[in-house]
Specification:
The chain is mainly beta. It has 9 domains: 2-78; 89-264, Lamin Tail domain (Immunoglobulin-like); 280-373, Immunoglobulin-like; 384-424 and 556-587, Immunoglobulin-like; 430-553, Lipoxygenase-1 (Sandwich); 593-671, Immunoglobulins (Immunoglobulin-like), CATH 2.60.40; 676-707 and 1162-1228, Immunoglobulins (Immunoglobulin-like, Sandwich), CATH 2.60.40.10; 715-853 and 1143-1147, Jelly Rolls, CATH 2.60.120; and more. Strands 59, 62, 64, 67, 83, 85, 86 and 87 form an 8-stranded antiparallel sheet that branches.
Amino acid sequence: MIEAQVRDNSYQAFSAFLFYKQSNELGYKMVPMDPTPGAVRKFLAQIPKRLIWNSELEYYIVMSNGKQRVESETKKLRLEGYQADLAHIPELLITELAVDTKNIGRADGYEFIEIFNTTDRTIDFKDYHIRYRYPKEGPDSDLIWRPDERILIPSGETFVVWLKPAGHTELTSEDFNRYYQTQLKEGKNLAVIDETEGMANTRPRAVVISTNTGKDISVAHYRKHALRRLSSVLYKYPLNGTAELLNISIGEKNPSPGTVLQAQVPEQKRKIKLDKEKPVIEDLTDRKPVRPAESIELRADIRDRSLVKTAAFYYRTDENKPFKRILAEKDRNDNLYHYIVYSPELIGKDQLEYYVAAGDGINEARTPVKMIDIKQTSKSHGLRMNIENRDTLSGTQFLKATTEGRADRIKLWIDGKKQVTEPAMEKEVYFAFDTRKTNLYFKNAVTMEGKVLKVFDDTTNKYRTYSVPLPETLLRKGKQLQRITIRSGSKVSPFDTAENRDDFLVKNARLVLSDGTVIRDQRVSPEKELFIGDNQRSNKSWQFQFNLSDGLFTSQLLEWDTSKLSEGAHHIQASDGKENVSLVVRVDNSGPHIEPNITEGQTYKGNLILQADMYDKWSKIEEAKASLDGESITLPYHTSFSDLLPGKHSLKVTATDLAGNKTVIERIFKTEREHPDQPEVIDSEADTHKVKLSVRVKDPTNDAMDVGFYRGFQYTARNHVKIFKHASLTEPPKSFVPERETLFTNKELERVSAADGKTVSTENKELFPYHRFEVTVDPSIDENDLAEAVWKGSSLPGRKVTMYAWNYRTNEWQPVDSFVAKDDKPFTLKASVIAADFVRESKMNVIVQDEIPPAKDMYTFVWMSDTQYYAESYPHIFDKQTEWIKDNQKQLNIKYVFHTGDIVDDSADIRQWKNADRSMSVLDKSGIPYGVLAGNHDVGHKDGSYRVFGKYFGSDRFDKKLHYGGSYKNNRGHYDLISSNGNDYIMLYMGWGNTDEDIAWMNQVLKKHPDRMAILAFHEYLLVSGNRSPIGEKIFKEIVKPNPNVVMVLSGHYHSAMRKTDELDDDGDGKPDRLVHQMLADYQGGPEGGQGYLRLLQFDQANDMVHVSTYSPYVKDKNYYDTDTYGNKDEFSLSLDLKPRIKKVETDYFECNVYTNEELGKREQVKSGDTAEFRWDHLEPQSVYYWYIIVEDSFNGKTKSPIWKFKTKKETYRPAPDQFDFRHVSNP
């Protein structure tokens, strides 16, 4: 920012301009100056930060009033923060790009990339390559350019790579030199890459120099609007130790391949340290034998003290041929090196030999050669068939007979009847092809004669090989060409013509025979990339043609429909005129016989073992399954019909035999209402010391019953119950008796002593309101007795009210019942607990709690991710992030902090964990709630172990924090409960390597908290394309869609910032019910590991919006991505319903019932409808007693009554015998 003032009061300037330059080799640039707000005769100019690339600026100012022009003197300005980090300048720079040049035909003819060696040694380019990057798609979609010839770049010199346009082989280096008037020599300082599509002129792209292992060395970006035809883009070395080059000139200079400006390169050469240590290679390949249809994954861990620049797998399947070299990049998920040898290369081969090699630019290492056996089917000789004697066959079978001689001599008979056969190939034939850039859900397919043979609908960014077996009936002898089609599909069908189709690339399509022979379409080069799709450069499908010679058809084939024959033995004969083969096979087209021990329509009661007799007449039973009312069970299954609800039930049994025939038997049966009815108490007046207890019992099926009389207790607000009201910081409270509770007044106790609609309500503006019930129970209660708490009250629609009981064994409030209110009508919470865990010193405690009510201030969540390079190399930036969060907690009303993984770069480096621990401890000490998860760099890179992560960020670190909801496998997953301003959230995390078990746990947690908005956090979810990754898609289908409370998903892992919003219809009415916002934010690919950029999510309740912004407390800058180039990539707003929900806990009535195991008496075999009686003696006078009964029948029916009470009479005074006056007693 530069300001100028007009000192001559008589001079009225109408306009002002700043002219500046950063190098004498480049001209001045002009920036308009605007009047300084609130000042007189002052003008201000701002130079965008992205345009500054030097530590010194030379400038002057020109002012004009329309008639006169005034020019200031030239001044120099030193800029802080623009000094070069000479120790970390890349060894190779891209110094110039010529993107838009003279056309040859329809393509740019002379595009080039200029490379400069900054070191004090010659660099062999064999350890590097050039990548052409699509910024929106990320590194996985890069095009790789490697010159064919060896390139040696001398110290301090340049090398030029010419991208020769495809189809112009007539152009030579002489043409290039003539165009640019240079004298570059091919092989010395000029290399040519043939058949390229060139660089885009109208879209933003990046050109990258990378090591062969995928490490970016120099990255040169250019923007579509900045290019000028027939000019160049110049770059300077980075100042901050990263790979991002500084753009210093666009369109100012004519291209000058081989020549650099002084401003572009450092004054001093970078010194390369002497390195004598070779890379260390650990071969991790599983060398167990494989079958031909399987693939082999070569796998290695390679490390070096400096940098592994080249890693390569060498392999071959023929010892007489040279090894094939495959360059491997470091996998960013596990930091290992992988390569898959797909099955088409293994078919017909006996073994695979391989070794691993690596280099760091100076030293090279390699492993010994190792072998992996391939289990090939042993080759048969003479006349043979593809079935064995005594095989069991069903359905349509393809019978083949093969001989060493002429196949047309083979004859085939079944049960003595000669069959009509056709020529065929003996073994399976595979169609193989390599493809990339396919997208999820698009039904791309391989088809043949209109039949779909294979659908491939996964996301593939890098080339992957598919192998498709071809049906025997589609390969015909005498057919001139075998035609196989690869189709671009829509999300509906491979043949759909109406919808949008996928766009992808295919190469190396071939047929692979059983002996390993490869047959190709002679019209297409194996390495040529074919574009398939519906864009302008693509074909919607590509048909390949293969010529199979008649000599390959060595068999005779019969398509045999066994269903037309009787079941049982059949005789098959084959002859080639010299040899005969005779077989007996069994035909089995019927499924197994199943006989369950349940009769259709019958009504059952009591105990039963569900089972079924199963057998097959012709073969063995291979698989048997059973289900009861849709739930899987294992036979025999022991059950009691009293455990089933009254009504119809289904037992389904499925059995499959060895021939593949399946039988399904379903039996529908009934169960009656088995449990006795609730008993009817018959009032009887208690005496002073005894009472007759009477109940009438009934059974719905008129079974005789045993009636047990038991002692009970009941406590209400009128007796032995103290009720407290308060509000806590969390739900439930973390302590047994929180401070500052208030005891209910006598008037309040009276209001809740009966279920009559008279209530007591407690509310709070900031905390969690609750009512606590302290019950003093009788000392005689045994630890095995059952205590039942009953609460009646109300809440507001959509609110979840929970009853907790204090568990003395675990020292925590344990949830025992909950209810989500549909309206404001009364409801009941009821739960039973065992006295052993919930009663101590005759005290039992229960609380009923709802959640916090509204406030009005805007609040903020902070989101961190992929801090790995801060922990590794820039711990001061990590510290800066958490210190800034602490310092701005009050100003921004920061309520919570997310961290979506890759806390460290190397999980084995304890120093990095200590750095991360120190930085994150700032949040611990400040009391700021936060959650973390493990990214791929936080777990063991070989075994995926969470051990070290658990040591530093396991559940022990969080379990005493108020917001910590619960842990899964020592914080592999966890959830936090956060409430702010009347909005309630559950933050649900799951670390790297999601499994079905992990997903099941997450769904379980979400279902327990349906009234909280859920924000999910994962390390991997969104891709740089804005689409979901395969695991992200699985999470979306299995977690996001089924849970209506999920509103947001956060992720990192991929170097970009993207977002995706889906509208979801939860009630199936065809209209969207909610928006789910999914975001990716990972800045680690930027300078200094991301320069400390954080995501801020500010929740604006007044407008129902979440305002997302990006800020770095380290460089004090908003938005990592430049808004001129990337728009609102880093700053935008999301719609979210943030209306505060009013909440309260309102009690109408509470009682505690204790069901003891103290049996008073028992009456057996009481008939249904009869009365059972028992006399209870030795009672205290004028006392209240409680009792209940248990009614059981002989078929496991069982019913427990409610608690009843009675009160004994007051004892009447009776004089002693010697005090009676017998004179007044008369005889009866």
